Amino acid sequence: MNDPRAVPQAAADFDAVIVGAGFAGLYMLHRLREAGFTARVFEAGDGVGGTWYWNRYPGARCDIESVDYSYSFSPELEQEWQWTERYPRQPEILAYLNHVADRFDLRRDIRLETRVTVAHFDDAAGVWRIETDRGDRCTARYCVMATGCLSAPKVPDLPGVERFAGATYLTGAWPHHEVDFTGLRVGVIGTGSTAIQVIPQVARQAKHLTVFQRTANFSVPARNGPLPVAEQQRVKAGYRERREVSRRSLFGIPVAMPDAPRRTRDIPPAELSASLEALWAQGGAMSLLAAAPDILMDPEANARVADFVRDKIRATVKNPAVADLLCPTTHPLGTKRLCLDTEYYETYNRDNVTLVDLRATPIDTLTEHGLRTTVQDYPLDALIFATGFDAMTGALAAIDIRGRAGHRLRDDWADGPHTYLGLASAGFPNLFLITGPQSPSVFTNMVASIEQHVEWIADCLDYLRAHRIARIEASENAQADWVAHTAAIANSTLMPQADSWYVGANVPGKPRVFTPYLGGLGPYRQRCDQVAAQGYAGFELTPAPITA
Ligand code: N01
Asked: Nearest C-alpha to atom 12 of ligand 1 is from which residue?
């Protein structure tokens, strides 16, 4: 007998279209092909790699250790790939992703230099209709957005940009050739994670470097260095256990969640100083956060750790006025992304580096020859914009995504993103987001979060196929509960206090909504697994018609 709820399911060119060929898109393609689905990946760049394809600026490096910032799905891949440094440089990560693309024969299903512009759900046929900037048109039963959280670079709208005669560079779309700043007067706008990596590198080359800082940021030394073979062998011998700890952890790194974490405020000052000194000497931003998670909840605990870092800045930077400017005062530590550096603060001891406080003296205009603040002209031959991204939603908003009844994602999310588990959005059947808003994503090791999402989505498609389900769509109620839950967790922390990209504060006009899920990767994974085990609770499943 026919099920009256059944909906049409026309033939489609592909089971899935995947948008983006970074860590997420590559693994999604592999996983779907392994499960017997057909898939096509569209990628705007002329190579695979996503973030690591675009962000080629000097000093670009990951702030998660290389042995953890890597796929865990293939023990053979894990064993054969050799990392050279504790924190991997951009070229090494890009080489790794190219190796993955070759090793798993992924390229034949990837179309490069092709940007998806349109993704419309055809309700009558039950397929997604995809269009690209190259004129491709195709249909797919499922559409998977592997578009990245930090992939829509943001250039500030500064007066006079068109007049500036020098070279301009955007860190998020860096040229593919070597850029030589030798002998040049260079400016950098921004002091976020990217700028903190760029500045020490450019300072070594440039005749003079002027850093235009609007907000001072907390940064922790990376203590990067070569990764000795013996150390790598030790990790590789215990990889399964290490990955398992990461999968269950808060941040997707091998630091187990403490059973009964001690409150930082209960730790005697001498003991806290000693442990912070040890963490400082060891380096690593995530381990500092993981060691004292309550610093994101308790203002007093946060202040103690923030004071420790400010003391370190003052001890490093010789000019007290410059040190003062570099000491963050506008936000609690960790509420903007905690940066990781190599000789960032030391760079301000160089004679060829000037720090300009844009809060005291804002930018007035760019001129033909440089940058003018409200009090001074700074002559420049080159200007680097390290000004961040329209994070979390920017790449999705750039695509004309329409769901049931012509719902536009952009309109539905005008007051902030609405998702269920950060994986799907009501009104958009058969659309999946990898590390979407309201999932742990940027608050974790991205690769660990990506793997969790990819595996969940692939298992879900397998379930739909096995149960002859034509459509899966997040229910409005489950979505509203998840959005409220995400906000409630964020509001129980200090995180929303900062004007960060986490809340969209860096994009004029963007609604102020804290987007990442802060409950931690391990608990989030459990929740997603529960949803699946309960037959995809919180999703509406619509059967396909039975055909004879
Ligand atoms: O971007 P950001 P990012 N006038 O938004 C300033 C990841 N990442 O590319 O803070 C003057 O953090 C802006 O000032 P303010 C990581 O998750 C990881 O550096 O808005 N200044 C800020 O200083 C990171 O968080 C790694 O007041 C302007 C800077 O530009 C995320 O990417 C490395 C301005 C932007 O900082 C984004 O980092 C790099 C204006 N009009 C990035 N507009 C690692 O793994 C913006 N700014 C190590």
From this structure: 192
For residues 188 and 169, what is the distance between their CA atoms, to the nearest angstrom? 9
Ligand 1 contact via 214 beta carbon (within 6 Å): yes
DSSP 8-class letter at 268: -
Contacts of 489 (CB under 8 A, 6+ apart): 517, 518, 519
Taking only the tens place, the pLDDT of each residue in 363-395 is 999 999 999 999 999 999 999 999 999 999 999
Q: Is 191 in the pocket of ligand 1 (CB under 6 A)?
A: yes
CA 389 to chain centre: 10
- Ligand 1: residue of 193, 211, 392, 447 to mutate (most ligand atoms within 8 A of CB) is 193
d(Cα 459, Cα 35) in Å, to the nearest integer? Answer: 9
Q: Of 357, 483, 458, 487, nearest to 15 (Cα)?
A: 458
Number of Cβ within a 10 Å radius of residue 21:
29
**Contact in structure between 416 and 392 (CB atoms under 8 Å):** no
Expressed in angstroms and rounded, the spacing between residue 386 Cα and the centre of ligand 1 is 6
pTM metric for this prediction: 0.97
What does DSSP assign to residue 23? H
Whether 362 and 215 have beta carbons less than 8 Å apart is answered as no
Q: Are 140 and 14 in contact (CB under 8 A)?
A: yes
What per-residue confidence (pLDDT) applies to 287? 66
User: Is the CB–ligand 1 distance for residue 332 below 6 Å?
Assistant: no
Q: Is 425 in the pocket of ligand 1 (CB under 6 A)?
A: no
320 contacts: CB under 8 Å, gap ≥ 6: 314
- Name, in order, each residue with C-beta under 8 angstroms of 185's C-beta and a sequence gap of 6 or more: 206, 207, 208, 210, 370, 379, 380, 381, 382
How far is residue 170's CA from residue 158's CA, in Å, rounded to a whole number?
14
Residue 532 token pair: 């699946």
Max Cα distance, the chain (Å): 82
Residue owning tokens 């129980």: 492
pLDDT in tens, 100-154: 999 999 999 999 999 999 999 999 999 999 999 999 999 999 999 999 999 999 9
Query: Phi then psi for 239, rounded to 5 degrees?
Result: -60, -40
Torsion (CA) 220, 225, 229, 233 in degrees, nearest 10: 0
Paired with 206 in beta bridges are 182
224 lines ligand 1 (CB under 6 A): no
Whole-angstrom Cα distance, residue 107 to residue 109? 5
| Cβ contact 336:506 at 8 Å | no
Pair type for strands 339-341 and 185-189: unpaired
Q: Which residues pair with 185 in a beta bridge?
A: 208
Cβ atoms of 349 and 320 within 8 Å: the answer is: no
| Beta pairing, strands 137-145 & 127-132 | antiparallel
Q: Which residue, 482, 491, 497, 494, is CA-closest to 530? A: 482
